[in-house]
Input
Amino acid sequence: MIRFWMRDTGLGPLGSNSRRFCSAVLWPTFVALVAFFTYEWILECSFTGTDVFALIESSQINSYEDLIRIFSGPLMQGTDFTSVARFYRPLATLSYSLDFWAWGLEPFGFQLTSLLLHVFVSICVFVVMRRLADGDGLFAAAAAALFAVHPILVESVPAIDRRHDLIASLFFLISLWCYLATESKDASSRRTSVLQALAVGAYVCALGGKEIAIILPGVMWCHAMLFRTGGHLKSRIKTSVMFVAPYIITSFLYVLWRIYILGGIGGYENNHHDARNLPWYMVNTIHCYFQDLVYPVDFGRFLEGECNYAPTAVIIAAVIFYVLFYFLGRGKRVRAQTASGFNRLALFLLVWLAIPLVLFIVTLTFSHRSMYTAVIPFAALVAGTAIESIRLMRAHMGSWQSTDSGREVSCRFAVIIAAGALCISLVAYSPLFSTYGQWKESARISTMFLERLAAMVQPLPRNCSIHVHELPEGVTEFNQKVPHAKEVTYLRDYAIKSWLNLQFRKNAIRIFVHKRSWPQTVAGSLGLSMLEIGHNSFHVFVEMSRPHKAFMQANRVHIARPFRQKSVTQ
Output
Protein backbone atom coordinates (compact mmCIF):
# COMPACT_ATOMS: atom_id res chain seq x y z
CA MET A 1 0.00 0.00 0.00
CA ILE A 2 2.92 2.34 0.75
CA ARG A 3 4.29 1.69 -2.73
CA PHE A 4 0.90 2.53 -4.26
CA TRP A 5 0.72 5.74 -2.21
CA MET A 6 4.22 6.79 -3.27
CA ARG A 7 3.33 6.16 -6.87
CA ASP A 8 0.09 8.11 -6.58
CA THR A 9 1.65 11.13 -4.88
CA GLY A 10 4.65 11.40 -7.15
CA LEU A 11 7.37 9.98 -4.97
CA GLY A 12 8.29 7.42 -7.60
CA PRO A 13 10.47 8.07 -10.64
CA LEU A 14 9.15 11.62 -11.01
CA GLY A 15 9.94 12.60 -7.43
CA SER A 16 12.80 14.84 -8.56
CA ASN A 17 10.32 17.29 -10.04
CA SER A 18 10.04 20.21 -7.62
CA ARG A 19 6.31 20.64 -8.10
CA ARG A 20 5.68 16.99 -7.35
CA PHE A 21 7.99 17.15 -4.35
CA CYS A 22 6.09 20.15 -3.00
CA SER A 23 2.75 18.40 -3.51
CA ALA A 24 3.91 15.09 -2.08
CA VAL A 25 6.04 16.25 0.87
CA LEU A 26 5.87 19.94 1.69
CA TRP A 27 2.10 20.35 1.55
CA PRO A 28 1.36 17.28 3.74
CA THR A 29 3.98 18.49 6.21
CA PHE A 30 2.33 21.91 6.32
CA VAL A 31 -1.09 20.31 6.93
CA ALA A 32 0.31 18.08 9.68
CA LEU A 33 1.92 21.04 11.47
CA VAL A 34 -1.28 23.09 11.27
CA ALA A 35 -3.34 20.22 12.70
CA PHE A 36 -0.80 19.54 15.45
CA PHE A 37 -0.39 23.10 16.68
CA THR A 38 -4.15 23.75 16.55
CA TYR A 39 -4.72 21.16 19.27
CA GLU A 40 -1.35 20.67 20.97
CA TRP A 41 -2.85 22.34 24.08
CA ILE A 42 -4.94 19.23 24.78
CA LEU A 43 -1.74 17.46 25.88
CA GLU A 44 -1.93 19.57 29.04
CA CYS A 45 -5.49 18.45 29.80
CA SER A 46 -6.34 15.64 32.15
CA PHE A 47 -9.10 13.15 31.32
CA THR A 48 -11.89 14.86 29.38
CA GLY A 49 -15.35 13.61 28.56
CA THR A 50 -18.10 11.86 30.49
CA ASP A 51 -17.51 8.32 29.28
CA VAL A 52 -13.73 8.07 29.31
CA PHE A 53 -13.42 6.00 32.52
CA ALA A 54 -16.24 3.68 31.50
CA LEU A 55 -14.48 3.20 28.16
CA ILE A 56 -11.15 2.46 29.85
CA GLU A 57 -12.70 0.03 32.33
CA SER A 58 -14.67 -1.91 29.71
CA SER A 59 -11.80 -2.03 27.20
CA GLN A 60 -9.21 -3.79 29.34
CA ILE A 61 -7.89 -7.02 27.83
CA ASN A 62 -6.62 -9.56 30.34
CA SER A 63 -7.44 -12.70 28.39
CA TYR A 64 -8.52 -13.98 25.00
CA GLU A 65 -12.12 -13.93 26.24
CA ASP A 66 -11.87 -10.17 26.80
CA LEU A 67 -10.86 -9.68 23.17
CA ILE A 68 -13.83 -11.75 22.02
CA ARG A 69 -16.08 -9.74 24.33
CA ILE A 70 -15.07 -6.46 22.70
CA PHE A 71 -16.14 -7.74 19.26
CA SER A 72 -19.24 -9.54 20.45
CA GLY A 73 -20.76 -7.02 22.84
CA PRO A 74 -22.01 -3.44 22.94
CA LEU A 75 -19.86 -0.43 23.68
CA MET A 76 -18.90 -0.16 27.38
CA GLN A 77 -20.38 -3.54 28.15
CA GLY A 78 -20.50 -4.21 31.89
CA THR A 79 -21.03 -0.56 32.84
CA ASP A 80 -24.23 1.36 33.49
CA PHE A 81 -23.79 3.17 30.16
CA THR A 82 -25.60 0.34 28.38
CA SER A 83 -28.78 1.40 30.19
CA VAL A 84 -28.39 4.84 28.59
CA ALA A 85 -27.38 3.83 25.05
CA ARG A 86 -26.26 0.82 23.05
CA PHE A 87 -23.62 1.14 20.34
CA TYR A 88 -21.28 -1.23 18.54
CA ARG A 89 -17.79 0.30 18.14
CA PRO A 90 -15.16 -2.40 18.73
CA LEU A 91 -12.29 -0.62 16.97
CA ALA A 92 -12.77 2.48 19.11
CA THR A 93 -12.80 0.26 22.20
CA LEU A 94 -9.52 -1.34 21.12
CA SER A 95 -7.88 2.09 20.93
CA TYR A 96 -8.57 2.58 24.65
CA SER A 97 -7.20 -0.91 25.34
CA LEU A 98 -3.93 -0.02 23.65
CA ASP A 99 -3.72 3.34 25.42
CA PHE A 100 -4.29 1.78 28.82
CA TRP A 101 -1.72 -0.94 28.08
CA ALA A 102 0.87 1.66 27.05
CA TRP A 103 0.09 4.50 29.49
CA GLY A 104 -2.00 3.18 32.34
CA LEU A 105 -4.10 6.00 33.80
CA GLU A 106 -1.81 8.73 32.44
CA PRO A 107 -4.02 11.22 30.56
CA PHE A 108 -1.13 12.53 28.42
CA GLY A 109 -1.00 9.26 26.46
CA PHE A 110 -4.73 9.27 25.74
CA GLN A 111 -4.65 12.90 24.61
CA LEU A 112 -1.59 12.22 22.45
CA THR A 113 -3.48 9.46 20.65
CA SER A 114 -6.40 11.80 19.94
CA LEU A 115 -4.06 14.51 18.70
CA LEU A 116 -2.19 12.14 16.38
CA LEU A 117 -5.48 10.80 15.04
CA HIS A 118 -6.52 14.33 14.12
CA VAL A 119 -3.16 14.92 12.41
CA PHE A 120 -3.48 11.69 10.40
CA VAL A 121 -7.07 12.49 9.40
CA SER A 122 -5.97 15.94 8.18
CA ILE A 123 -3.21 14.37 6.08
CA CYS A 124 -5.72 11.88 4.65
CA VAL A 125 -8.01 14.78 3.73
CA PHE A 126 -5.08 16.23 1.76
CA VAL A 127 -4.34 12.93 0.00
CA VAL A 128 -7.98 12.28 -0.94
CA MET A 129 -8.62 15.83 -2.15
CA ARG A 130 -5.41 15.78 -4.17
CA ARG A 131 -6.58 12.59 -5.84
CA LEU A 132 -10.03 14.05 -6.53
CA ALA A 133 -8.48 17.19 -8.06
CA ASP A 134 -6.02 15.31 -10.30
CA GLY A 135 -2.93 16.25 -8.32
CA ASP A 136 -3.80 19.84 -7.40
CA GLY A 137 -1.66 20.16 -4.26
CA LEU A 138 -2.61 23.77 -3.50
CA PHE A 139 -6.33 22.98 -3.41
CA ALA A 140 -5.78 19.83 -1.35
CA ALA A 141 -3.55 21.61 1.18
CA ALA A 142 -6.01 24.51 1.57
CA ALA A 143 -8.93 22.10 2.07
CA ALA A 144 -7.03 19.99 4.61
CA ALA A 145 -5.74 23.00 6.55
CA LEU A 146 -9.20 24.58 6.72
CA PHE A 147 -10.59 21.26 7.94
CA ALA A 148 -7.86 20.96 10.60
CA VAL A 149 -8.64 24.38 12.14
CA HIS A 150 -12.43 24.45 11.77
CA PRO A 151 -13.86 25.65 15.12
CA ILE A 152 -16.65 23.06 15.35
CA LEU A 153 -14.04 20.30 15.67
CA VAL A 154 -13.36 21.56 19.19
CA GLU A 155 -16.45 19.56 20.13
CA SER A 156 -14.66 16.32 19.19
CA VAL A 157 -10.86 16.44 19.26
CA PRO A 158 -10.22 17.50 22.91
CA ALA A 159 -12.66 14.94 24.34
CA ILE A 160 -10.99 11.56 24.79
CA ASP A 161 -14.33 9.75 24.71
CA ARG A 162 -15.21 11.28 21.32
CA ARG A 163 -12.28 9.96 19.34
CA HIS A 164 -14.72 7.53 17.70
CA ASP A 165 -15.43 10.16 15.03
CA LEU A 166 -11.71 10.57 14.38
CA ILE A 167 -11.17 6.81 13.98
CA ALA A 168 -14.18 6.47 11.69
CA SER A 169 -13.07 9.44 9.56
CA LEU A 170 -9.51 8.12 9.27
CA PHE A 171 -10.55 4.74 7.86
CA PHE A 172 -13.36 6.38 5.88
CA LEU A 173 -10.78 8.46 4.00
CA ILE A 174 -8.37 5.53 3.59
CA SER A 175 -11.17 3.46 2.08
CA LEU A 176 -12.20 6.32 -0.21
CA TRP A 177 -8.61 6.83 -1.38
CA CYS A 178 -8.22 3.12 -2.18
CA TYR A 179 -11.49 3.23 -4.12
CA LEU A 180 -10.35 6.28 -6.08
CA ALA A 181 -6.97 4.69 -6.80
CA THR A 182 -8.65 1.73 -8.55
CA GLU A 183 -9.71 4.01 -11.42
CA SER A 184 -6.10 4.71 -12.42
CA LYS A 185 -5.64 3.96 -16.11
CA ASP A 186 -2.28 2.25 -15.64
CA ALA A 187 -3.46 0.09 -12.74
CA SER A 188 -2.94 -3.63 -13.23
CA SER A 189 -5.67 -6.11 -12.40
CA ARG A 190 -3.67 -7.35 -9.41
CA ARG A 191 -3.16 -3.82 -8.07
CA THR A 192 -6.85 -3.08 -8.55
CA SER A 193 -7.85 -6.22 -6.66
CA VAL A 194 -5.52 -5.37 -3.77
CA LEU A 195 -6.86 -1.82 -3.58
CA GLN A 196 -10.47 -3.04 -3.66
CA ALA A 197 -9.78 -5.44 -0.79
CA LEU A 198 -8.03 -2.69 1.18
CA ALA A 199 -10.95 -0.33 0.52
CA VAL A 200 -13.51 -2.81 1.84
CA GLY A 201 -11.30 -3.67 4.83
CA ALA A 202 -10.83 0.01 5.69
CA TYR A 203 -14.59 0.52 5.40
CA VAL A 204 -15.18 -2.29 7.92
CA CYS A 205 -12.69 -0.61 10.27
CA ALA A 206 -14.49 2.72 9.82
CA LEU A 207 -17.80 1.09 10.78
CA GLY A 208 -16.05 -0.37 13.81
CA GLY A 209 -15.07 3.16 14.80
CA LYS A 210 -18.50 4.79 14.54
CA GLU A 211 -21.76 4.38 12.64
CA ILE A 212 -21.35 7.64 10.71
CA ALA A 213 -19.07 5.76 8.28
CA ILE A 214 -22.13 4.10 6.74
CA ILE A 215 -22.46 7.13 4.46
CA LEU A 216 -19.39 5.96 2.48
CA PRO A 217 -21.28 3.85 -0.13
CA GLY A 218 -23.48 6.87 -0.87
CA VAL A 219 -20.42 9.09 -1.34
CA MET A 220 -18.79 6.50 -3.61
CA TRP A 221 -21.99 6.05 -5.64
CA CYS A 222 -22.23 9.80 -6.18
CA HIS A 223 -18.58 9.88 -7.34
CA ALA A 224 -19.16 6.99 -9.73
CA MET A 225 -22.21 8.73 -11.20
CA LEU A 226 -20.29 11.94 -11.83
CA PHE A 227 -16.81 10.70 -12.75
CA ARG A 228 -16.74 7.00 -13.67
CA THR A 229 -19.79 6.43 -15.86
CA GLY A 230 -21.21 7.73 -19.11
CA GLY A 231 -24.23 7.25 -21.33
CA HIS A 232 -27.89 7.62 -20.45
CA LEU A 233 -29.13 7.90 -16.88
CA LYS A 234 -30.36 4.31 -16.43
CA SER A 235 -27.05 2.88 -17.62
CA ARG A 236 -25.06 5.21 -15.37
CA ILE A 237 -27.12 4.24 -12.32
CA LYS A 238 -26.67 0.54 -13.04
CA THR A 239 -22.93 0.86 -13.60
CA SER A 240 -22.49 3.01 -10.47
CA VAL A 241 -24.30 0.44 -8.34
CA MET A 242 -21.94 -2.24 -9.65
CA PHE A 243 -18.96 -0.11 -8.59
CA VAL A 244 -20.18 0.23 -5.01
CA ALA A 245 -21.83 -3.21 -4.67
CA PRO A 246 -19.11 -4.59 -2.33
CA TYR A 247 -19.65 -1.66 0.05
CA ILE A 248 -23.45 -2.02 -0.07
CA ILE A 249 -23.14 -5.71 0.79
CA THR A 250 -20.70 -4.88 3.59
CA SER A 251 -23.15 -2.30 4.97
CA PHE A 252 -25.99 -4.84 4.90
CA LEU A 253 -23.91 -7.45 6.74
CA TYR A 254 -22.80 -4.83 9.27
CA VAL A 255 -26.40 -3.83 10.04
CA LEU A 256 -27.39 -7.49 10.51
CA TRP A 257 -24.43 -8.12 12.84
CA ARG A 258 -25.16 -4.93 14.77
CA ILE A 259 -28.81 -5.94 15.26
CA TYR A 260 -27.69 -9.37 16.45
CA ILE A 261 -25.17 -7.94 18.94
CA LEU A 262 -27.32 -5.11 20.29
CA GLY A 263 -30.69 -6.83 20.10
CA GLY A 264 -31.88 -4.03 17.82
CA ILE A 265 -30.57 -1.14 15.79
CA GLY A 266 -29.13 0.51 18.91
CA GLY A 267 -28.76 4.15 19.84
CA TYR A 268 -29.84 6.16 22.86
CA GLU A 269 -32.66 4.66 24.88
CA ASN A 270 -34.47 7.99 25.31
CA ASN A 271 -34.06 9.05 21.69
CA HIS A 272 -37.79 8.96 21.01
CA HIS A 273 -39.43 12.01 19.48
CA ASP A 274 -43.12 12.80 19.37
CA ALA A 275 -44.37 12.43 15.78
CA ARG A 276 -45.96 15.87 16.07
CA ASN A 277 -42.54 17.41 16.77
CA LEU A 278 -40.65 15.65 13.98
CA PRO A 279 -41.06 18.51 11.46
CA TRP A 280 -39.63 20.95 14.00
CA TYR A 281 -36.81 18.52 14.74
CA MET A 282 -35.97 18.35 11.04
CA VAL A 283 -35.95 22.13 10.74
CA ASN A 284 -33.81 22.45 13.86
CA THR A 285 -31.34 19.85 12.56
CA ILE A 286 -30.91 21.78 9.31
CA HIS A 287 -30.58 24.98 11.33
CA CYS A 288 -27.82 23.56 13.55
CA TYR A 289 -26.05 21.75 10.72
CA PHE A 290 -25.48 24.87 8.64
CA GLN A 291 -24.83 26.99 11.69
CA ASP A 292 -22.05 24.65 12.79
CA LEU A 293 -20.47 24.65 9.34
CA VAL A 294 -20.70 28.29 8.36
CA TYR A 295 -21.14 30.11 11.64
CA PRO A 296 -19.84 27.93 14.46
CA VAL A 297 -19.19 30.86 16.79
CA ASP A 298 -22.21 32.65 18.25
CA PHE A 299 -21.30 36.33 18.10
CA GLY A 300 -23.40 38.21 20.61
CA ARG A 301 -25.58 35.11 21.17
CA PHE A 302 -27.96 36.08 18.38
CA LEU A 303 -27.95 32.50 17.09
CA GLU A 304 -28.69 31.03 20.51
CA GLY A 305 -31.92 29.12 20.97
CA GLU A 306 -33.70 26.54 18.86
CA CYS A 307 -36.38 28.90 17.62
CA ASN A 308 -34.09 31.58 16.27
CA TYR A 309 -34.07 30.40 12.67
CA ALA A 310 -33.94 33.75 10.88
CA PRO A 311 -30.13 34.10 10.97
CA THR A 312 -29.73 30.51 9.77
CA ALA A 313 -32.14 31.19 6.91
CA VAL A 314 -29.86 34.06 5.92
CA ILE A 315 -26.85 31.70 6.13
CA ILE A 316 -28.53 29.07 3.94
CA ALA A 317 -29.52 31.74 1.42
CA ALA A 318 -25.94 33.02 1.40
CA VAL A 319 -24.66 29.48 0.74
CA ILE A 320 -27.10 29.10 -2.18
CA PHE A 321 -26.04 32.44 -3.69
CA TYR A 322 -22.40 31.52 -3.13
CA VAL A 323 -22.84 28.33 -5.18
CA LEU A 324 -24.85 30.12 -7.87
CA PHE A 325 -22.24 32.83 -8.20
CA TYR A 326 -19.56 30.20 -8.58
CA PHE A 327 -21.33 28.36 -11.39
CA LEU A 328 -22.52 31.55 -13.11
CA GLY A 329 -18.96 32.81 -13.22
CA ARG A 330 -17.70 30.11 -15.57
CA GLY A 331 -17.68 31.39 -19.12
CA LYS A 332 -17.67 29.07 -22.15
CA ARG A 333 -14.28 30.23 -23.35
CA VAL A 334 -12.67 29.79 -19.95
CA ARG A 335 -14.26 26.38 -19.50
CA ALA A 336 -12.59 25.34 -22.74
CA GLN A 337 -9.25 26.71 -21.55
CA THR A 338 -9.37 25.28 -18.05
CA ALA A 339 -10.06 21.57 -18.12
CA SER A 340 -9.68 21.10 -14.39
CA GLY A 341 -13.17 19.64 -14.08
CA PHE A 342 -13.83 21.44 -10.80
CA ASN A 343 -17.49 21.97 -11.77
CA ARG A 344 -18.21 18.28 -11.27
CA LEU A 345 -15.98 18.13 -8.20
CA ALA A 346 -17.88 21.03 -6.61
CA LEU A 347 -21.18 19.25 -7.32
CA PHE A 348 -19.78 16.04 -5.83
CA LEU A 349 -18.69 17.88 -2.67
CA LEU A 350 -22.14 19.45 -2.34
CA VAL A 351 -23.83 16.05 -2.49
CA TRP A 352 -21.25 14.62 -0.06
CA LEU A 353 -22.04 17.50 2.28
CA ALA A 354 -25.78 16.74 2.10
CA ILE A 355 -25.49 13.00 2.82
CA PRO A 356 -24.59 13.33 6.56
CA LEU A 357 -27.43 15.83 6.99
CA VAL A 358 -29.90 13.33 5.53
CA LEU A 359 -28.55 10.63 7.86
CA PHE A 360 -28.94 12.90 10.92
CA ILE A 361 -32.52 13.73 9.96
CA VAL A 362 -33.55 10.13 9.25
CA THR A 363 -31.96 8.68 12.38
CA LEU A 364 -32.75 11.64 14.68
CA THR A 365 -29.15 11.61 15.95
CA PHE A 366 -27.78 15.08 15.27
CA SER A 367 -25.36 16.61 17.77
CA HIS A 368 -22.60 19.19 17.50
CA ARG A 369 -20.03 16.53 18.42
CA SER A 370 -20.99 14.51 15.31
CA MET A 371 -19.93 17.18 12.81
CA TYR A 372 -16.34 15.96 12.42
CA THR A 373 -16.91 13.99 9.20
CA ALA A 374 -19.24 16.59 7.69
CA VAL A 375 -16.57 19.30 7.84
CA ILE A 376 -14.39 17.42 5.30
CA PRO A 377 -16.46 18.18 2.15
CA PHE A 378 -17.37 21.64 3.47
CA ALA A 379 -13.72 22.65 3.88
CA ALA A 380 -12.90 21.31 0.42
CA LEU A 381 -15.85 23.12 -1.14
CA VAL A 382 -14.94 26.50 0.37
CA ALA A 383 -11.22 26.18 -0.35
CA GLY A 384 -11.75 24.77 -3.83
CA THR A 385 -14.27 27.32 -5.07
CA ALA A 386 -12.09 30.17 -3.80
CA ILE A 387 -8.90 28.88 -5.44
CA GLU A 388 -10.66 27.99 -8.68
CA SER A 389 -12.31 31.42 -8.77
CA ILE A 390 -8.93 33.13 -8.45
CA ARG A 391 -7.56 31.06 -11.34
CA LEU A 392 -10.59 31.68 -13.54
CA MET A 393 -10.61 35.40 -12.80
CA ARG A 394 -6.98 35.63 -13.86
CA ALA A 395 -7.92 33.90 -17.12
CA HIS A 396 -10.78 36.39 -17.62
CA MET A 397 -8.79 39.54 -16.96
CA GLY A 398 -7.49 39.82 -20.50
CA SER A 399 -11.00 40.40 -21.87
CA TRP A 400 -12.83 41.72 -18.87
CA GLN A 401 -14.19 44.71 -20.80
CA SER A 402 -16.68 42.53 -22.65
CA THR A 403 -20.16 42.16 -21.17
CA ASP A 404 -19.95 38.39 -20.60
CA SER A 405 -16.45 38.50 -19.16
CA GLY A 406 -17.34 41.44 -16.93
CA ARG A 407 -20.24 39.48 -15.45
CA GLU A 408 -18.07 36.43 -14.95
CA VAL A 409 -15.29 38.43 -13.28
CA SER A 410 -17.86 40.02 -10.96
CA CYS A 411 -19.18 36.58 -9.96
CA ARG A 412 -15.66 35.31 -9.38
CA PHE A 413 -14.83 38.37 -7.30
CA ALA A 414 -17.97 37.88 -5.16
CA VAL A 415 -17.06 34.23 -4.52
CA ILE A 416 -13.49 35.15 -3.55
CA ILE A 417 -14.65 37.86 -1.13
CA ALA A 418 -17.25 35.56 0.48
CA ALA A 419 -14.85 32.61 0.78
CA GLY A 420 -12.09 34.85 2.11
CA ALA A 421 -14.33 36.37 4.78
CA LEU A 422 -15.57 32.90 5.82
CA CYS A 423 -12.07 31.45 5.98
CA ILE A 424 -10.78 34.38 8.03
CA SER A 425 -13.61 34.04 10.55
CA LEU A 426 -13.16 30.26 10.84
CA VAL A 427 -9.40 30.53 11.31
CA ALA A 428 -9.68 33.44 13.76
CA TYR A 429 -12.07 31.49 16.00
CA SER A 430 -10.27 28.19 15.65
CA PRO A 431 -8.32 26.74 18.60
CA LEU A 432 -5.18 27.84 16.76
CA PHE A 433 -5.87 31.47 17.74
CA SER A 434 -8.72 31.33 20.28
CA THR A 435 -8.79 29.74 23.72
CA TYR A 436 -11.40 27.15 24.61
CA GLY A 437 -10.89 26.92 28.35
CA GLN A 438 -13.97 24.83 29.05
CA TRP A 439 -12.23 21.56 28.30
CA LYS A 440 -9.32 22.29 30.64
CA GLU A 441 -11.69 23.42 33.37
CA SER A 442 -13.88 20.35 32.95
CA ALA A 443 -10.81 18.09 33.21
CA ARG A 444 -9.53 20.02 36.26
CA ILE A 445 -12.85 19.76 38.09
CA SER A 446 -13.14 16.05 37.33
CA THR A 447 -9.57 15.35 38.46
CA MET A 448 -9.92 17.25 41.73
CA PHE A 449 -13.25 15.62 42.54
CA LEU A 450 -12.10 12.08 41.76
CA GLU A 451 -8.82 12.39 43.66
CA ARG A 452 -10.56 13.73 46.76
CA LEU A 453 -13.34 11.15 46.48
CA ALA A 454 -10.80 8.31 46.25
CA ALA A 455 -9.14 9.58 49.45
CA MET A 456 -12.51 9.62 51.23
CA VAL A 457 -13.57 6.21 49.94
CA GLN A 458 -10.31 4.50 50.96
CA PRO A 459 -11.41 3.64 54.54
CA LEU A 460 -15.09 3.02 53.70
CA PRO A 461 -16.72 -0.42 53.34
CA ARG A 462 -16.56 -1.77 49.80
CA ASN A 463 -20.34 -2.29 49.67
CA CYS A 464 -21.48 1.19 50.69
CA SER A 465 -23.71 3.68 48.89
CA ILE A 466 -22.35 7.12 48.07
CA HIS A 467 -24.74 9.98 47.28
CA VAL A 468 -23.10 12.95 45.56
CA HIS A 469 -24.64 16.42 45.84
CA GLU A 470 -23.87 19.66 43.99
CA LEU A 471 -21.49 18.05 41.51
CA PRO A 472 -20.78 20.72 38.85
CA GLU A 473 -22.42 20.21 35.49
CA GLY A 474 -20.87 23.30 33.96
CA VAL A 475 -19.20 26.60 34.72
CA THR A 476 -21.34 29.65 33.97
CA GLU A 477 -18.53 32.06 33.14
CA PHE A 478 -17.39 29.95 30.18
CA ASN A 479 -20.84 29.98 28.56
CA GLN A 480 -20.70 33.77 28.68
CA LYS A 481 -17.47 33.91 26.71
CA VAL A 482 -17.00 34.06 22.93
CA PRO A 483 -15.98 31.60 21.67
CA HIS A 484 -16.90 28.59 23.76
CA ALA A 485 -17.48 24.90 23.11
CA LYS A 486 -21.12 23.87 22.96
CA GLU A 487 -21.08 20.32 24.32
CA VAL A 488 -18.50 20.10 27.08
CA THR A 489 -19.44 17.26 29.42
CA TYR A 490 -18.85 16.58 33.10
CA LEU A 491 -18.91 13.46 35.27
CA ARG A 492 -21.94 11.18 35.54
CA ASP A 493 -22.70 8.46 38.08
CA TYR A 494 -21.52 5.56 35.89
CA ALA A 495 -18.28 7.45 35.10
CA ILE A 496 -17.55 7.88 38.83
CA LYS A 497 -18.33 4.19 39.41
CA SER A 498 -15.88 3.18 36.66
CA TRP A 499 -13.19 5.39 38.18
CA LEU A 500 -13.67 3.70 41.57
CA ASN A 501 -13.55 0.29 39.90
CA LEU A 502 -10.19 1.21 38.38
CA GLN A 503 -8.91 2.35 41.78
CA PHE A 504 -10.45 -0.31 44.03
CA ARG A 505 -10.82 -3.73 42.46
CA LYS A 506 -13.79 -5.96 43.27
CA ASN A 507 -15.83 -3.33 45.08
CA ALA A 508 -19.60 -3.17 45.31
CA ILE A 509 -19.85 0.58 45.89
CA ARG A 510 -22.97 2.21 44.50
CA ILE A 511 -22.91 5.82 43.22
CA PHE A 512 -25.90 8.14 43.05
CA VAL A 513 -25.59 11.69 41.72
CA HIS A 514 -28.33 14.01 42.90
CA LYS A 515 -28.73 17.75 42.41
CA ARG A 516 -26.16 19.24 40.01
CA SER A 517 -24.71 22.75 40.27
CA TRP A 518 -23.70 25.50 37.83
CA PRO A 519 -21.09 27.56 39.72
CA GLN A 520 -20.19 30.95 38.31
CA THR A 521 -16.54 29.97 38.53
CA VAL A 522 -14.37 27.35 40.19
CA ALA A 523 -11.40 29.35 41.36
CA GLY A 524 -8.60 27.67 43.21
CA SER A 525 -9.40 24.29 44.71
CA LEU A 526 -12.48 22.15 45.14
CA GLY A 527 -13.59 20.82 48.50
CA LEU A 528 -15.64 17.82 49.58
CA SER A 529 -17.41 17.03 52.81
CA MET A 530 -19.01 13.72 53.78
CA LEU A 531 -21.83 12.68 56.11
CA GLU A 532 -22.58 9.13 57.18
CA ILE A 533 -26.35 8.77 57.34
CA GLY A 534 -27.73 5.35 58.08
CA HIS A 535 -25.93 2.06 57.61
CA ASN A 536 -23.27 2.14 54.85
CA SER A 537 -24.84 5.25 53.31
CA PHE A 538 -22.64 8.30 52.80
CA HIS A 539 -23.51 11.71 51.35
CA VAL A 540 -20.76 13.73 49.66
CA PHE A 541 -21.16 17.48 49.17
CA VAL A 542 -19.06 19.15 46.48
CA GLU A 543 -17.29 22.52 46.51
CA MET A 544 -17.89 24.90 49.40
CA SER A 545 -21.28 23.38 50.20
CA ARG A 546 -21.90 22.04 53.67
CA PRO A 547 -24.92 19.93 54.73
CA HIS A 548 -27.49 22.52 55.74
CA LYS A 549 -30.19 22.22 58.39
CA ALA A 550 -33.03 21.41 56.00
CA PHE A 551 -31.15 18.40 54.64
CA MET A 552 -30.22 17.14 58.11
CA GLN A 553 -33.75 17.54 59.43
CA ALA A 554 -35.20 15.74 56.42
CA ASN A 555 -32.91 12.76 57.00
CA ARG A 556 -32.82 12.72 60.81
CA VAL A 557 -35.23 9.81 61.03
CA HIS A 558 -32.82 7.65 59.02
CA ILE A 559 -29.83 8.26 61.26
CA ALA A 560 -28.98 4.96 62.93
CA ARG A 561 -25.97 6.31 64.79
CA PRO A 562 -24.35 9.67 65.34
CA PHE A 563 -23.12 10.95 61.99
CA ARG A 564 -19.49 11.51 61.31
CA GLN A 565 -18.41 14.39 59.14
CA LYS A 566 -15.31 14.04 57.02
CA SER A 567 -13.87 16.70 54.80
CA VAL A 568 -11.22 16.79 52.16
CA THR A 569 -10.18 20.22 50.96
CA GLN A 570 -6.97 21.00 49.24
In short: The beta strands are 85-86, 267-268, 465-469, 471-472, 510-513, 516-517, 527-532, 537-542, 565-569. The chain has 21 helices and nine strands. The longest helix spans residues 233-262.
